[in-house]
Write a structure and sequence with these properties.
- The chain contains 5 helices and 11 strands.
- The protein is α+β, with helices and mostly antiparallel strands.
- It has 2 domains: 73 residues, Type Iii Antifreeze Protein Isoform Hplc 12, CATH 3.90.1210.10; 144 residues, no CATH class.
- The protein is elongated, with a radius of gyration of 39 Å.
- The N and C termini lie far apart (148 Å).
């Protein structure tokens, strides 16, 4: 090979080597793994129900336990360990006056404890009275036995019309509605339904009334037979207030219903 060719080849090799060195590195850069650090949540133990708790349940230490809970939680009224470290022992023996689901935070306003913490007293609303009335144990005067605790009912009174009887109708009876939308606290000794019961039988019904309504029902029970008519679940009156029947302002009809021998007729008082 001639010297000139060798020189040209040397120059080419040198130029190629220089160009290769000047090229950006083609080597793959190592992948950087970014680890996300979980934010630190400031927790405080909260007392929760260990099992589902129903009305009237008497608490013991096995029915509740402490559960970590964010301090920033908007739930108010819960029992926090930082404020009440001995809460489990403090609420032992309390009566539940509102249902709790398992793992639901406990609230003191739904518990009651003390010498006057009877079961029925925990169910009666503030300013109300529990009034028991006699009913047919077979259910004949309680919607066929299908009135259950926490249902809403109307209270009817059936009594003998003495004036109609004197007029020669020995079986003249009058039925009138005394109160509407009354809450049933208990049927017999039962204050709640258990195991899917759809019928509860008892010889009395305990109703939630205000003091004046209690007087009305107590007197009515002495002068006639009281019956309960079950209201529809969808037919609730606003605010669940008990209502007294009012006269129909669109009509001057003051007639009453008289039942003679099973036949219903209307009559106007003289």
């Amino acid at each position: 090979m001639k010297k000139a060719q060798i020189a040209v080849l040397g120059v080419a090799l040198t130029a190629g080597a220089a160009a290769y060195l000047l090229m950006p590195s083609q080597q793959q850069q190592p992948t950087q793994i970014v680890q996300t650090v979980a934010p630190v949540v400031d927790n405080d133990d909260v007392l929760v129900a260990a099992v589902a708790l129903d009305y009237g349940k008497i608490l013991d230490e096995t029915m509740v336990h402490w559960q970590a809970w964010p301090k920033s939680s908007p739930i108010v009224g819960v029992i926090r360990k930082s404020a009440e470290p001995n809460a489990i022992q403090d609420i032992k023996g309390s009566i539940v006056r509102g249902n709790f689901m398992a793992e639901e935070p406990m609230r003191k306003d739904r518990l009651v404890k003390g010498p006057t913490a009877g079961l029925m007293a925990t169910l009666v609303g503030q300013g109300k009275r529990a009034v028991a009335i006699n009913i047919d144990a077979s259910g004949a005067t309680s919607a066929g036995g299908f009135v259950l605790p926490n249902d809403r009912v109307d209270i009817l009174r059936t009594y003998r019309d003495e004036d109609a009887a004197k007029a020669g109708s020995p079986d003249a009876f009058v039925t009138e509605t005394l109160l509407r939308n009354v809450k049933v606290l208990a049927i017999g000794p039962n204050v709640q339904t258990e195991n899917g019961k759809t019928v509860i039988v008892g010889s009395n019904a305990t109703l939630e009334l205000d003091p004046k309504q209690s007087e009305t029902i107590t007197l009515a029970q002495r002068t006639g037979q009281l019956s309960l008519t079950l209201r529809s679940l969808l037919d609730a009156i606003a605010d669940n207030k008990v209502e007294e029947p009012t006269p129909d302002t669109k009509s001057d009809d003051k007639s009453m219903t008289i039942i003679r021998y099973g036949v219903s007729t209307s009559a106007r008082p003289k």
